[in-house]
Amino acid sequence: MKISALLSLVPLVAALPGSRIGTTKTKDVNAPFGVTAARSGSPIHFLPLTASGSHFFLGGKSSTYCPSEVVPGCAGRTNDTIIYGQSALDVVVPGGQSIYVAPSGALSFTTPHSGYIPAGSSQGPFVYTPGASGNPLGTWTYSGQGASGFMACPVPASNSGSAAARRAAAAAPPTWQVYAAQQNATVPTGNVTDCLGFDALAVGMNVTSNSLAWEYI
Ligand SMILES: *[C@@H]1O[C@H](CO)[C@@H](O)[C@H](O)[C@H]1NC(C)=O
Ligand SMILES: *[C@@H]1O[C@H](CO)[C@@H](O)[C@H](O)[C@H]1NC(C)=O
Ligand SMILES: *[C@@H]1O[C@H](CO)[C@@H](O)[C@H](O)[C@H]1NC(C)=O
Ligand SMILES: *[C@@H]1O[C@H](CO)[C@@H](O)[C@H](O)[C@H]1NC(C)=O
Questions:
Q1: 11, 33, 77, 114: most buried by Cβ count inside 10 Å?
Q2: What's the pTM value of the predicted model, to 2 decimals?
Q3: What's the pLDDT tens digit per position in 128-172?
Q4: Which DSSP string do the residues of 121-164 spell out, in sequence order?
């Protein structure tokens, strides 16, 4: 990506909702970061990466859970998707939650209290490259199985329900699910040419264990 394009993102980064942008620049590849998609002139430009239902999306909301009957301070925990250690969700739940690419090509995360990863999945390489000194923007890439990073694939709106429900679904912006950018991915529309490749801009975060999500579901 061009430097000018990166510079134009700095105000965006400052405005990211709920984010705690690290003030001390670190080269630590295991440090926490959030991801924003970049593909200029497309509907996915600047949409945040969100974890939900064992998969990842652009836009929408992350799906987090915190057992408030046993864990204090659930209300102060982030609902943003934060990654650390290059390929894990940054969570408190014992055992953690790993990120992998399922045989379909779908970017996926393990469910809490289970390290289960389906046979034929790929666990990397995922690489986080922190931003250079003075620049909060780095990148996150995946290059397993010949993939070149990530792509966002539209998920067709459900065809069922009342006519009004179908009209509402057709009028809503599409849901974009994240896949490894590989030609043989099994994508929701059945045609990989419907997907848009994007740069995963990684924004270093400064989060404490009190503000991390308990777990993503
Ligand atoms: C993170 O925030 C804490 C408290 O605000 C500060 O002391 C620390 O230096 C920050 N670390 C980084 C890497 O920005
Ligand atoms: C995250 O969402 C939960 C449930 O909606 C809410 O209680 C909590 O305050 C939110 N956390 C933050 C930091 O906004
Ligand atoms: C997709 O292609 C890659 C690279 O050739 C290969 O490693 C992978 O096994 C293929 N995946 C499937 C599900 O066929
Ligand atoms: C996928 O979409 C492209 C572009 O619309 C089209 O040319 C191609 O025939 C489609 N492939 C399949 C298998 O439907």
A1: 33
A2: 0.87
A3: 999 887 777 999 999 999 999 999 999 988 767 788 877 777 777
A4: -B---EEEEPPPTT--EEEEEE-GGG--SEEEEEEPPP--S-HH
CB-based contact 57:178 (threshold 8 Å): yes
Dist. CA 17 → ligand 2 center (Å): 13
Express each pLDDT in 45-79 by its tens digit. Answer: 999 999 999 999 999 999 999 999 999 999 999 99
Q: Structure tokens of 118?
A: 């389906």
**Ligand number with the minimum distance to the CA of 183:** 3
Largest CA distance in the chain: 54
Nearest bound ligand to the CA of residue 32:
1
Alpha helices in the chain (DSSP H): 3-7, 10-15, 163-171
- Counted residue by residue, the chain has a size of 217
| Residues lining ligand 3, Cβ inside 6 A | 103, 145-146, 182, 184
Kindly give the distance from the C-alpha atom of residue 106 to the centroid of ligand 4, in angstroms, as a whole number: 20
Rounded CA separation 213/217 (Å) = 11
> What does the domain layout of the chain look like in residue ranges?
3-208
CA dihedral 33, 36, 38, 42 (to 10 degrees): 170
75 C-alpha to ligand 2 centroid (Å): 5
